[in-house]
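Our consortium's second objective concerns turning raw sequence data into structural hypotheses that experimental partners can test. To show how far this objective has progressed, the report includes one record in full. It was chosen at random from the queue rather than selected for favorable results. The single chain below, 139 residues long, was entered without modification.
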Amino acid sequence: MTEPMLWWTVAGILVVCELLSGTFYLLMLAIGATAGAIAAQLGASQAWQIVIAAGSGASAITLWHLRRQRNTAPADSTDQNQHFDIGETVQVPSWNAQGEVRVLHRGTHWSAICADSTPTPGLHRIIELKGSRLVLAKV
């Protein structure tokens, strides 16, 4: 088997492994193996083929990782498009001394806190989610 054929085989195996596992980083390694195959076809020595394959694979992984980190924004706790509960109303019978309450919403009990400085019983609107707690404001 020639060196370019060996690199192409490694690239193909990496692509198949990616399809089976769903790890996108394996495609970046396949890019490195492809660069090694191209270097082999251009007549580079075996040492240079390995350096080119490792360098391009590592660069592709680093670039993909940085791109993924930059595009992954934290969820906005007040965005109604991400949290369908925002804008819904709940009935609060009474608040405890810490300004917390358990309310029934969508058939289950939720822990809630008051956004206002003085919590009062009555109808409240969900304005934000903090973790698994609802933040309520008086309607």
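The partners drew two points from this record. The longest strand covers residues 122-130. The first helix runs from residue 3 to 21. Both points have been shared with the crystallography group to help prioritize constructs.
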